[in-house]
Predict the structure.
Amino acid sequence: MFGLGKRDTSLLMIVAIMALLAPFILNPFPEGSAMAQFNAGYPDLMQRFVIFGIFAIGFNILFGLTGYLSFGHAAFLGIGSYAVVWMYKLLDYNIVPGLFLAVIVSGIFALAIGYISLRRSGIYFSILTLAFAQMMFAISYSDLLGRFFGTSITNGETGLQVYTSDPQILIDDWESVPHLFGIVEMRSTYTLDMGAWSFDFNAGYYFCAIVMLLMFYLAIRIFRSPFGMMLRAVKSNQQRMNYTGLNTRPYTLAAFVISGMYAGLAGGLLASMDPLAGAERMQWTASGEVVLMTILGGAGTLIGPVLGAGFIKYFENIFAKINDNVLHSWFAFLPDGIEDFMVTLVHPFVGKGWHLTLGLLFMAVVIFLPGGLVEGGQRVAKLFKRKKPSDDTPDGKTTPAE
Amino acid sequence: MDAILLQILNGLDKGSAYALIALGLTLIFGTLGVVNFAHGALFMIGAFCSVTVQRILTLSTETLSETEKDFLGNPLKVKTPIVENWFGPEAGAAIIDWSVPLAILFAIPVMLLIGFIMERGLIKHFYKRPHADQILVTFGLAIVMQEVIKYFYGANPIPTPAPSAFTGSFNFATLFGMEGSLYYPYWRLVYFGFSAVIIGAVFAFLQFTTFGMVVRAGMADRETVGLLGIDIDRRFTIMFGIAAAVAGLAGVMYAPINSPNYHMGMDFLVLSFVVVVVGGMGSLPGAVLAGFLLGILESLASMNEVKAIIPGIDQIIIYVVAIIILLTRPRGLMGRKGVMEE
């Protein structure tokens, strides 16, 4: 279907079903129950899942396929956000023109940065992209562009936002929040109550989810195309590619621009959900985050980055909420002394300390599971598969007893 | 003229920190071929060694004062640092005052130990893996180190004063016989001198000792040195410890200049990498040269006269220079041929 192989179609279908039913899947616990705080089915978090999914899918096209580790992708995320907010300021709150502009502008920046950075490989490439991203962060944080143009471009550390004094030439009276051609507002939410459960269906989330599915489909096509094959060849042995008389630069540059555009789109969507853009989105820790997501999920796999993005965003929001009271209620079944001991033992890893858990987890993944969660899943699946034939067919390949 | 001189002086202390961190990074890269993203965290841990020593020295006992009373007539509680009980009030106060320099003695073994554990426990397993994996695992380690420090010391910067003997400023104008004033804090001069000594010591160690000679030989051709029956791995482990100690010492002495907080390492790390790359991957003199150069350049760019021409240039000058240098001299200022050239 859609020009995909059988396995890819079913993968796309699974992701589509998961994304469209996410409000149900992410809210498994009834309202008011002790477990309700683990529900992730609220609009804000669901939007983040899919938006950072797009960001990670794009990053994976560069890192997963070509092996070039960029430490500056957050710059494009920030550019996308600024572009969308500027469209709000100039035209109106319709998000579509802004998203197009976000993709185009981040593509142009990616072309310029990629053209320079890709002249070097390995660690030099990582550091060049890092330097560019930090430069962009410094420029937008202190609004350097604004000083040249005489008007504020990024609005410095306050962040860019829409003011009533902005031109907004297309604005109508009813517009006050981001919307899609006036059909639906991004923040409008329909809440479905079913007994003890309640599910939120948010317009913004579904918009992002559909964009994510399109982008996921595009990524599958890129992975399976001759172009994707070429990128993989760059990863496995660039020197050999050069010896065969092939210039790899255009291919890596194309991959860099594509992933930059993905990041720009993700940034644009962030600003579509919440009409703000700040420089902190460009900081290198944000670039590090997308690296974490991709590696954690599984670099070079299709589904990995989406999993990684969901995983990190889920724990960032849910783990961070666990405080000592929650811990006490968990370990309440233990005798008092042991309960307190367990709470103090777990305390550093949850709540504000969740970054520690993330760091440890990330190290463990890099050390033991270079393929990320996807490889972990495959290993587990293999374990079960291996057992089956030996159970069903005793005359199959088994080691003879001596 | 005065202003330029002052900015050059200002650049020296930041440049010293860059140079020391970059030196350690280059030592690790040159010997083990590992890109260490946790090096900034080592600098940060060094700074927290100062904090720790200060806290240990000011551990106090509480006694009821015999003479002083509070407004209700109850005897006042007086805190006396234990060192004052041991060495007498004057000597004790002096020891507390000098806690930052004393922290050097504490930091050297601690940092060497951390370095050894890091190399033997983690980095060792990553020699054969791609550079991307090395970057990632050390990046993860940096996050972990940061969070551990944050857990024990909190998220706020902790002021760590320099000894009171160095709190003033020194007027350079009188030294050069110039008119006007050119004040420069003593401690920054100390920091510059200290880092010059450390850099000199590292170079002397590599240049004039047998150990250093073997290490240099190993950097040039690891396999041949191994074939000669020298256990090069053990020496490289020791070099890793030394590099960690250099970063730690840079942090210890930097504590009074900037109150240590848990993410100071990350802030320095990005710039130090730029410094290493500008200096030339694997070149020790290049790292030191580029460190001072970029530090001075940064403070020259922050002069008002320069900012009037190009606003905000101080924020981006280092990156601009780094990009230009990498594009015109791909190996950096003093890079060696064959290092990191796939």
In short: The radius of gyration of chain A is 23 Å. Confidence is low (pLDDT under 50) at residues 390-398 of chain A. Residues 390 and 397 of chain A are 8 Å apart (CA to CA). The domain at 6-281 of chain A is CATH 1.10.3470 (ABC transporter involved in vitamin B12 uptake, BtuC).
